[in-house]
């Protein structure tokens, strides 16, 4: 009688009671369910939904750990002016702030999932495993925990459970949670005071430090000020920002892992990057900075002059747009969400392209929301079924035509 | 005409007449069941006071309009009845608009075009067409009061949640303490939910009310 048998016995005991769904959910974390399908032909594979979700979480762990180091690094940098990156102190500062975010996100979200599953008597669905990990990575570090809890409850109930639970949601729940936070408490989600731990305390003068300020690169650009970070900082992520989105390098590694394991769609990721580059090139040409961005030639005076309030973001080299802000994170971890993205292959390319394209567009023309990828993905989530519909219809039409020519 | 004498005169508050007022509050609510008049329900419910004023204005216009149309129902040629109805609503709406501007100018500014837009409120034309053209003035009056009350009830519920959660006030009074001075709930770190003041949350609030009502009364759920 090992653990496995004991658990199976317990499972029999709970069958038919209120706790059945909750127990089964915990049980399948350790062992495959001992209920098997008896009829029909099925592909036997160890990868159930829970394993798929866990793979995505694995792809996010490096980003999370980097986020903890970076949180402490930015904090110490802001206080002392100089700081080392890989120190235990940095990690502890970050851990203290980020672990509660993670716990609240999972606690509230899974709690709601369990309640819904128990009341509606269906299996607890695994969809929240990824959402719960994504949420702490896309919020500013000093976000009050109760706000996160309210937003998670809203996102899980309104964006997911009301539509029918995992696999039925139209919008990406993690981004719905972020959008809710953003529109509810914009002061905590944007500006130059929220991205570095301790800066908010500076505003409220709780501990007398009010010199801390950490503006994101996009915020700086939107205000038409020169960026002070080096390319290396931008790429490796030693910059202020939401917890997990700063390191483009680690996000790329995560993306490669997702493509390699066959979970993330390479079509969406690549077409999103192409979309962002196209929009970036258009803006660079408007601002007359396309040549220097490509490394050849001088800037010319474009349609958009240096006096324009859009000049900062428009003149920013198109390939650097890919490295700042949450664009990379959004494309790799959220645009590829298999539920809310387009399903057809051609649809995925259109969907991804428009996400990249719109992200940069919103970024430039809406300085109040310096990052556009959240809005772009949510918008395209809504249009994904429409894209699929037209792709399928086009296919049907083409084949009908072929049939006609063959039979005629 | 001779038959009329045999029909017993219906009392003023017969069961049927009371039903005319009570039904629109719940099972045939103009907003949640008939899904009419959504636009103004989304636009002006950020404050409870505005919701109440709007509800009262619509009640006046609908009740009075119903009576007028009902009295004229045998005179109006059916081919031009829409124009005749519009004239009646327009006259009543102008009365309301000017009264509000005269006595509560601040609120009139907040309600802005929406008082004028009562004229296009689907509930009003809907009740004229569906009820006042075929029933007597007393019944039409009750129907107007009932439907406007049903509309107002939803407005007030939505307005209550939006003002309370969005700006921490009710009728303009601070409920949770002062957000600037950080007293009351704000001292604990509470902050107002700015999203509640935007139209999307009004729609979601309304959706939740509709969902709640249909979960209580399954016969309201449409099948398609």
TrEMBL record, chain A:
It catalyses: a ubiquinone + n Na(+)(in) + NADH + H(+) = a ubiquinol + n Na(+)(out) + NAD(+). Its cofactor is FMN. Keywords: Cell inner membrane, Cell membrane, Flavoprotein, FMN, Ion transport, Membrane, NAD, Phosphoprotein, Sodium, Sodium transport, Translocase, Transmembrane, Transmembrane helix, Transport, Ubiquinone. The chain crosses the membrane at residues 52-71, 98-117, 137-158, 170-188, 235-261, 268-287, 318-336, 348-366, 372-392. Its EC number is 7.2.1.1. Pfam families: NQR2_RnfD_RnfE. NQR complex catalyzes the reduction of ubiquinone-1 to ubiquinol by two successive reactions, coupled with the transport of Na(+) ions from the cytoplasm to the periplasm. NqrA to NqrE are probably involved in the second step, the conversion of ubisemiquinone to ubiquinol. NCBIfam families: nqrB, PRK05349.1. Belongs to the NqrB/RnfD family. This is Na(+)-translocating NADH-quinone reductase subunit B. The lineage of its organism: Bacteria, Pseudomonadati, Bacteroidota, Flavobacteriia, Flavobacteriales. The gene is nqrB.
TrEMBL record, chain B:
It is found in: Cell membrane; Endomembrane system. Its EC number is 7.2.1.1. The chain crosses the membrane at residues 52-72, 84-104, 110-128, 194-212. InterPro entries: NqrD, NqrDE/RnfAE. It catalyses: a ubiquinone + n Na(+)(in) + NADH + H(+) = a ubiquinol + n Na(+)(out) + NAD(+). Keywords: Cell inner membrane, Cell membrane, Ion transport, Membrane, NAD, Sodium, Sodium transport, Translocase, Transmembrane, Transmembrane helix, Transport, Ubiquinone. Pfam families: Rnf-Nqr. It is a multi-pass membrane protein. It is an enzyme of class 7 (translocase). Belongs to the NqrDE/RnfAE family. NQR complex catalyzes the reduction of ubiquinone-1 to ubiquinol by two successive reactions, coupled with the transport of Na(+) ions from the cytoplasm to the periplasm. NqrA to NqrE are probably involved in the second step, the conversion of ubisemiquinone to ubiquinol. Composed of six subunits; NqrA, NqrB, NqrC, NqrD, NqrE and NqrF. This is Na(+)-translocating NADH-quinone reductase subunit D.
